[in-house]
Amino acid sequence: MSIKSILCAYSGDPSKGSGLRHAGRLAKRHGAHLTGVAKRGGIGFLHRQLPAHLPGQVIAQLDANGQKTMADTKARFLEMAVEEGLGDRAEFVELDPKANGPIASFARTFDLVVIGHHLGAVYEDDYASNPDLIALRSGRPVLVVPERHEVPESSVADVLVAWDGKRAATCAVAAAMPILKQGAKVALLSVSRTPRNTDWLVQTLSKHRVVATAVTVDQNGSVAETVLAYSKSKEVNLIVMGAFEHSKFSHDIVGGATTDVLRETQVPVLLAH
Which domain, by its residues, includes 254? Predict the structure, then answer.
């Protein structure tokens, strides 16, 4: 499948807008339509963080701040779309969760979701989206771009696939195919053991003209630390991995490879669940 419809979800990234810039470059390379989205938040966070009864002036000011956040987010998106020459292939949506459902539901109608790191600021949380939850609940691949990541001009990538032979990793490989087929050099990285039938996957990728090599390394620290160390040593510029092979609840409590890689990565990570 090709990438023809990309959703760029606002994550609260206030710095260089790495996720936004990456989404624009991808849309340009693939001739895809790009939709920017931020959810309308308002003052929902007040009920979680502040006293129940506040003066009307305070509520009005907070609501005005939220409207400015939305307007600024839209302006940044449209400015990027002009810079990348996307023309009528770009649009921005202010998503109303009450009418349209959560962003994860909206994301199911796109080929790929691109999002920056979720910073989790109290006020931003009502407007921004969380990438791991979108990956878990949407059923679509999610490309998470770390803060301050410099977007490369070239489409050719050195790609690390965190390969454990399981379902989620298999979905991630399939989701990444449009990117891999652009001349990527791929390392199928397994930790501690080589999964069964890995050689067959290498052959299948070669039939798609994707150059892939199976690599198995000893575990040094956690699985995430091993994957990240390899990615740095080989200077890869994309990590592909399955998301949440176990429950999201267990990841929240004890962590997991997905969570840990997202926290520490310096390069984009393509997730599929």
Answer: 158-272
Residues facing residue 161 across a β-bridge: 188, 240
Q: Domain count for the chain, please give it.
A: 2
Do 68 and 167 lie in one domain? The reply is: no
Q: What is the pTM of this model?
A: 0.84
Closest CA to 30 of 108, 84, 107: 84
* Beta-sheet pairing, 142-145 with 269-272: antiparallel
Q: What is the DSSP letter of 110?
A: S
CA atoms of 239 and 189, how far apart (whole Å):
10
Tens digits of residue pLDDT in 42-66: 544 444 455 556 666 766 766 677 6
Q: 222, 257 in Cβ contact below 8 A?
A: yes
**Considering 122, 145, 168, which residue would you say is the last residue of a domain?**
145
CA distances from 73 to 62, 66, 67 (A): 17, 11, 10
Tokens of 213: 């090599």
Domain with residue 201: its CATH number is: 3.40.50.620
**Same domain as 136, residue 176:** no
